[in-house]
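Please check this record.
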Amino acid sequence: MQISRNKMLFGFFVLSFGIFLDMGICAAVQSELRITTIKQEPYTISKGTQLEGFCMDLLSEVAKKLGFKYRVQLVKDSSYGRQDDNGNWNGMIGEVVRGEADLAIAPLTLTAAREKAVGMTKPFMQTGISILLRKDISEGSGFFDFLNPFTAETWVGILIAYLGTAASIFIVARISPCEWSQPQSEQNRFSLVHSLWYTAGALTLQGAGPHPKSLAGRVICCSWWLFTVVLLACYFSNLSSSKSSESAQLMVKGFEDLANQDTIEYGCLAGSSTLAFFKNSNNPVYRRIYEHMERTKSFVSSMDEGVRRAKEGNFAFIGESVSLDLAVARHCELVRAHEVIGMRGYSIAAALGSPLIKNLSVAILQLSEAGELAYLRSKWWASSCIADKTKSSPVQLHSLKGMFLVLSLGLGLGALLAVLELTSKSRRGAAEQRKSCCTVLTEELSLRLRTSNASRPQENVDKDKEKA
């Protein structure tokens, strides 16, 4: 009885040790995950014997959070993963399905077909479908492109400043006795029409005499000239910049424009999810694009080929917006259309039912909330096109607020000097006529601001009264 009990205890011990050893071996195997990836800038690129890039940095951050070791290997057939007619998968998806790799980390688009074959995490990057073109494929200039350097609000402000300056010159020329000394016998040179013409002449840097003689009028003119010089400098500078970057305004602004023209050839990556999107779409525009690509066989075999053909000109490459943004950052002669359709995400793939999926998704969300994914995006998508970062934009009204302030102060100072000049003359006249200064000043203002008889000589007025 005692021997039987000892045998049972020995057997239990051996069994427990075997289970423990097996668990340890499994844990040791699982602690180093096999990662499959594919070379594509900037996700995974070679640097000597090492691999680096966005996906490698993402893998490193995820491994730190989940506490696993990994070994990265490149996919054998250099393919992302496509299902053939027999239902078999190739590429990275195929390696995960066959158990040759535990994880596939690359710009793998999350699709329904792939979701059925493998487990996909929460997307670590959002993308869509857009168009890549050369910058010199631009639309024709419009009739009113010369107005583009300034915004509409700025043009309205300039018009108000022009009318205000002309009105100030007209009023000051009437009030100032240095400009119009004898309103009863002398005709005022600065009529309203001449004031408008004089101000417009200064705006175009052309003289339009006669010029003001009074200090008040000259102060207003100097303020307007200074405003004009700065205004024209801003206008021509912005006009030149807008002309140099005019090519950024694409003739093909979206997929409808692309489908409605036959001048520019277009195509996408053969066998890609982008092609499947157009093939399976019920949208008539997208169907026309697919039928055109299928008819002309304008597919490209790689991303590099699509970028190369776009750089050569007269070809629009349709691809995922994130990849196109990288091409724009690396090749300054290219630009991406603003329209993005078919939004989807890039995910990490694992075997169906793998417990890693949940943990990886949580880790990706934590990195996104901490801003790490945005940092990695800015790190690997940094643009080398310095000139493209300084594209001109229309001058806003608030950008010229200093010059509008200087002009306003000049107009106010000119009006004040005109009143002081008239007041000084009225005081001298009041002493001679023995009247109050206010009375003489009021009479002077009334005489100068009348438009009917102020410009007519007093002798002619008396003759008209005698004839009546």
Summary: The chain has a mean pLDDT of 80.
